[in-house]
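Lecture notes, part 5. Sequence design as translation. It can be helpful to think of inverse folding as translation between two languages: the language of shapes and the language of residues. The source text, in structure tokens, appears below.
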């Protein structure tokens, strides 16, 4: 296989489980299940389909004669009719009733909907596991003060756990979107060539109610609550757009997470996992590049761009259908799922192995904290008899002097020493140093984390506890 292109999504990133969902074997076995459901439904609604024929179909539901189908497709240039033929070769008694009344989209579109639904469930499972891992991280570090940043400039402190809760909140929003779309998935059903069910109305001798019941019965047999109420030959391609929009939302959240991790790794405050034999750079042996976060970001870029494909397809369909969706769907939908699958595996792996360096965090915090404590220092000086306006001007002047000492002279932040030496404040250095506990400046960050976990996240995780406990394995 080294002499032809192989998708990196299969070789490097996506799990075997997700790859199987979009495999030919899964597709063609689902086609046969749909043909069995159609035959059963037609028999139950009074058409001359026998139990013997159905049992013959069931006996060959799994052992697909691929070679026969391939040879037939080379001859007739039609994938569905090739598999109808191959199934008939194995089921001579049922040959005449396979695909009865249906058009190609009966198996093609219903299978796409079934596979996307199963793939969304797998995405949901992995998303919940990432959320559970992040929740544990947020809980562990909810009290660890750290510099917060706005515009990547030091701002009022937060905690490591509170920052993690922001990543977690984004994923919670993605889960809400995913569950809405997953809950809205339906089958196409048996709508016929242009969506009018004309062929089925003919089969059922003009009985409209039997046509309606056929849709409901097929949906039930395939594990769905119902079928879309109207369609052309195909289900609306907006469904694909909705599905990939959910994947793109998860990609956005994952990319945001990796931005923060890569910046934190540059600051040496938090690092993604780095294995003993891992090489960070071919030239610089000391380097610990945030390779997994960068890979997540790279895949996320792809998924966010990929969502344009179903949008373009849906917007350019003509009337009841055109076939210019076909090649695009074969690429954009499976590869969007394979990419998001790889992203979530990497995300879980990174969060599971995140390394936090409290001493470095504290060092950075203490270098900036005197500036952030000036409001409290000023209030203490007012209580000691100082004039608020005069004190404000003195603190502004001294802060600029301390900033110059840091940025121009490369020295330490000496704002506290400057304030203690200024008689305007009537404050001793030791009194000022006692105010330098970072926990006094994080506001309600620890409490916010605990409230968010208890009131929002833990109920979700408890409700889905049977899906938790995954450990992500990455290929490279």
């Amino acid at each position: 296989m080294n002499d032809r292109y192989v998708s990196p999504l299969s070789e490097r990133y996506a799990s075997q489980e997700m790859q199987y969902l979009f495999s030919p074997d899964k597709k063609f076995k689902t086609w046969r299940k749909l043909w069995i459901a159609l035959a059963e439904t037609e028999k139950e609604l009074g058409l001359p389909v026998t139990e013997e024929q159905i049992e013959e179909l069931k006996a060959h539901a799994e052992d697909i004669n691929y070679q026969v189908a391939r040879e037939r497709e080379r001859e007739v240039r039609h994938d569905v009719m090739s598999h109808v033929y191959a199934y008939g070769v194995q089921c001579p008694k049922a040959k005449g009733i396979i695909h009865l009344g249906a058009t190609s989209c009966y198996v093609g579109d219903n299978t796409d909907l079934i596979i996307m639904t199963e793939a969304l469930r797998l995405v949901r499972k992995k998303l919940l596991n990432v959320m559970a891992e992040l929740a544990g991280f947020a809980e562990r570090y909810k009290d660890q003060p750290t510099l917060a940043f706005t515009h990547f400039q030091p701002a009022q402190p937060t905690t490591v756990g509170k920052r993690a809760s922001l990543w977690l909140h984004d994923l919670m929003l993605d889960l809400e979107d995913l569950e809405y779309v997953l809950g809205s998935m339906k089958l196409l059903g048996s709508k016929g060539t242009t969506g009018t069910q004309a062929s089925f109305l003919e089969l059922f001798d003009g009985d409209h109610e039997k046509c309606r019941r056929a849709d409901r019965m097929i949906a039930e047999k395939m594990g769905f609550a119902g079928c879309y109420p109207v369609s052309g030959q195909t289900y609306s391609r907006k469904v694909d757009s909705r599905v990939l929009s959910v994947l793109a939302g998860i990609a956005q959240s994952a990319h945001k997470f990796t931005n923060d991790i890569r910046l934190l790794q540059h600051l040496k405050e938090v690092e993604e996992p780095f294995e003993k034999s891992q090489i960070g750079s071919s030239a610089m042996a000391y380097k610990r590049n945030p390779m997994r976060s960068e890979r997540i970001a790279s895949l996320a870029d792809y998924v966010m761009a990929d969502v344009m494909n179903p949008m373009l397809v849906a917007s350019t369909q003509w009337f009841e259908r055109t076939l210019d969706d076909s090649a695009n769907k074969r690429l954009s939908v499976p590869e969007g799922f394979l990419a998001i699958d790889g992203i979530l595996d990497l995300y879980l792996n990174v969060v599971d192995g995140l390394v936090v360096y409290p001493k470095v965090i504290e060092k950075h915090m203490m270098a900036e904290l005197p500036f952030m404590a000036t409001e409290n220092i000023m209030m203490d000086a007012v209580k000691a008899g100082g004039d608020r306006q005069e004190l404000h001007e003195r603190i502004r002047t001294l802060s600029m002097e301390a900033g110059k000492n840091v940025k121009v002279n490369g020295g330490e932040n000496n704002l506290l020493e400057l304030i203690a030496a200024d008689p305007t404040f009537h404050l001793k250095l030791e009194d000022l140093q006692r105010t330098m506990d970072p926990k006094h400046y994080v506001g309600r960050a620890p409490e916010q984390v605990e409230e968010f976990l208890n009131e929002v996240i833990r109920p979700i995780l408890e409700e889905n506890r049977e899906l938790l406990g995954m450990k992500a394995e990455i290929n490279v």
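The translated text above is only one of many valid answers, since several sequences can fold into similar shapes. The chain has a mean pLDDT of 93.
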